[in-house]
Amino acid sequence: MTPTIEYFYSTHSAFAWLGSKALSEIAARQRRVLVHRPFDLRRLFVAIGHEPTGSINDARRRYFFGREIERWAQYRSVPVLGRTPTWHHHDLALSSGVMLAAIEQAERVDQLAHAMLCAHWQHDADLASEADLARIIQAVGLAPAGLLARAVAPDIVARYHANTDEAIARSLFGSPTYVVDGDPFYGQDRLELVEQACTTRFTDTWQHRADPALPGR
To answer: Residue 36: beta bridge partners?
Structure first.
């Protein structure tokens, strides 16, 4: 069986975009298949008690969604708008459904995910717009009509909810999260650790601790 990297992400995630090219390169070098698991990041945040992004004060927003993105974009040579995309708060069910439909058909999934993130964070695309999604789908050589129609089918929508349920059940924190042989790595800033885990599993003593308290507390 071909080894994999499970890839849990939101289709509009800035940090998934920043890590997208590097992730594909790691998968290729390590001969691992990316298993795409698009999920509802907003519902995950509610489930884990994460502070809603809309309630974050301006200073924190400028740091986490500004300076952090700016630095990582420079470090990974990834182009970004330099601001939050115009349509960033639109619903993501349709774009996630398109991804799940492509996964079902095994059609250029890695390329489509990369193109979707790029369109949003580099070209300000609206991922809730059928017209914008059609252009993204066409750009990777796929037929938009079939994927867009399949994206709203009840079983595809159910799969989107199931991915979210699984992310919550597995105690994942956000997007992107990469899972290597059962070991989750949250954030594109962990990609170097992801690559090491593909060849050498990290020692894991945390989960066997009887005392859940963190050191020093």
So the answer is: 7
DSSP state letter for 52: P
Beta strands 177-180 and 33-38, pairing class: unpaired
The full DSSP string for 78-142 is ----SS--TTTTS--HHHHHHHHHHHHHT-SHHHHHHHHHHHHHHH---TT-HHHHHHHHHHTT-
Q: Which residues contact 35 (CB under 8 A, 6 or more apart)?
A: 4, 5, 6, 7
Give the model confidence (pLDDT) of 130-165 as tens digits: 999 999 999 999 999 999 999 999 999 999 999 999
